[in-house]
Amino acid sequence: MNETIRFFDWKEEIEKVGMQSIGDDLILFDQPVLSSVLDHPVKVDVTTIIICRQGRCRGTVNLEPNEGEGPGLIILPRNSILQFKEISDDFSSLFIIMSESFLNSLNIEEKMPLWMSVRETPYIPVTEEELEALVIYYEMLKNAMRFEDNPYLLNTARHLTIAFFYGMGYSLHRKGLRDNKRTSSRSDVILERFLNQLRNEYRTHRSLNHYADVLCLSPKYLSKMITESSGKSPVQWIKEYVIHEAQALLTSSNLTIQQISDELNFPSQSFFGKYFKRYTGVSPKNYRSQEFR
Questions:
Q1: Would you give the distance in Å from CA 73 to the centre of its chain?
Q2: 3-class DSSP state for residue 216?
Q3: What single DSSP character describes residue 18?
């Protein structure tokens, strides 16, 4: 059977280390479980927050080179394609895994600005004082999880995490990772709805009209709102998702180009090749060769 990009089986991995959890909603552990993602691109179907206390790691997130070192914070949103290439011997971090349903239940204003920032910059350097605050957040979650019979445990975790997001949102603004301060607006809400839909359907739908219909908006209005909120048009977002997936499949699987074309729901291999070359400047075959990797 041909190999394709696989979701990182975090459940299997963390069984090897000590952890604390609230079902699959929120999981904490403090030992790296990165051996399975060394040298092989994988997808993650959960959001992973890594509080880096010391050491250094290097790799790619959605095919873009990224490095992180302590003290710092790495946020890997759901459906990221990631690959770790190098991890220093002194790497020490705290790991927090959040399910999609847990994140959605937070319903907080600062979530979208934070997510828009970390999509481009997953690694955020922090001061020693900010690192201490992050560790305190982790330890508060960990201590709360000791009381497994607490009927309010999940709500406690939600409120602690809401405070975390608001705090990090402020930190991102102060560090200048965003060009301007943003408050939740209609365009932000529409952007979040669009990206949620896109993450689920980019393999099968690449039409602006499709997403406009699903969101009950006109294509012109949707384009205006998305561009206003993110600086990118819906067509750019769609293209980015499709091309990233195609590049990952070309460089990390033994699927044929025809199979990749089918996987991404193109009408033909020829159509896929033209689409890919239009946005990357090279054919899928040439991209797959070592020269373009």
A1: 14
A2: coil
A3: -
CATH assignment at residue 145? 2.60.120.10
**Phi and psi of 144, rounded to 5°?**
-65, -35
Q: What is the Cα–Cα distance from 244 to 237, expressed in whole angstroms?
A: 11
User: Which DSSP letter does residue 108 get?
Assistant: -
Q: Is 203 helix (H, G, I), strand (E, B) or coil?
A: coil
Instruction: Flag whether the pTM goes above 0.90.
Output: no
Amino acid identity, position 153: L
CATH of the domain at 200: 1.10.10.60
Q: Same domain, yes or no, for 27 and 152?
A: yes
pLDDT at 252 over 80: no
Owner of token pair 């250094």: 56
Domain boundary (149, 175, 201) is at: 175
DSSP reduced 3-state for 221? helix
Q: Tokens 């939740």 correspond to what residue?
A: 184
Picking from 153, 175, 197, the residue at the C-terminal end of a domain is: 175
Q: What is the pLDDT of residue 238?
A: 93
Sign of the CA dihedral with 231 first, then 179, 70, and 160 last: negative
pLDDT at 1 over 50: no
Place of tokens 């603004």: 173
Name the residue range of residue 160's domain.
Answer: 6-175
- 152 and 214 share one domain: no
161 with 195, same domain: the answer is: no
My answer on whether 194 and 163 are in the same domain is no
Q: Which two tokens stand for residue 162?
A: 């809401």
Q: What is the mean pLDDT of residues 256-285?
A: 93
Residues 106 and 233 in one domain: no
Quick: pLDDT tens for 202-249.
Answer: 999 999 999 999 999 999 999 999 999 888 899 999 998 898 888 878
Q: Do 262 and 162 have their domain in common?
A: no
pLDDT digits 0-9 by tens, 34-72: 555 555 667 777 888 999 999 999 988 876 788 989 999
Q: Do 275 and 267 contact (CB within 8 A), yes or no?
A: no
